[in-house]
Amino acid sequence: MVAINFFCAVMYYGLSMIVVLNAVAEIPAYGLTVILLEKFGRKPLAIGTMCFSGLFCLLGSLLRNVGVWKLIRMLCGILGIFGMAVTYNLLFIYTAELFPTMVRNQAEREKLCIDEML
């Protein structure tokens, strides 16, 4: 779980710095997380959104940055941050359910602190 949080944080904050229009992808992702979570559950949704994000990031990295491909590459980046925003939002819910109530707040604070340091 620590490794998943680490790599998702690196990808989330890395993509947020690169893509200028990340708010266009992140705002709907937060609302869509709730809807998809009720329909698919935590684990399939986490796996699916990580694969979705990875696929579009890989596709965007393989495209050339010339002409119309520049727009398609930017769209792939926006879809990549969309998938990672859903995953990152889901990890907050998933991590909170793993810890007992007595240590939950401390564990969430430490997770946020480590994620921000990356």
UniProtKB/TrEMBL annotation:
Entry keyword set: Membrane, Transmembrane, Transmembrane helix
Membrane disposition: Multi-pass membrane protein
Stored SUPFAM superfamilies: MFS general substrate transporter (SSF103473)
TM segment ranges: 7-25, 45-63, 75-96
Chief subcellular location: membrane
InterPro entries, A to Z: MFS_trans_sf
Gene Ontology CC: membrane
Localisation per UniProt entry: Membrane
Record-linked PANTHER family: SOLUTE CARRIER FAMILY 22 MEMBER (PTHR24064)
Protein name per UniProt: Major facilitator superfamily (MFS) profile domain-containing protein
Organism: Arachis hypogaea
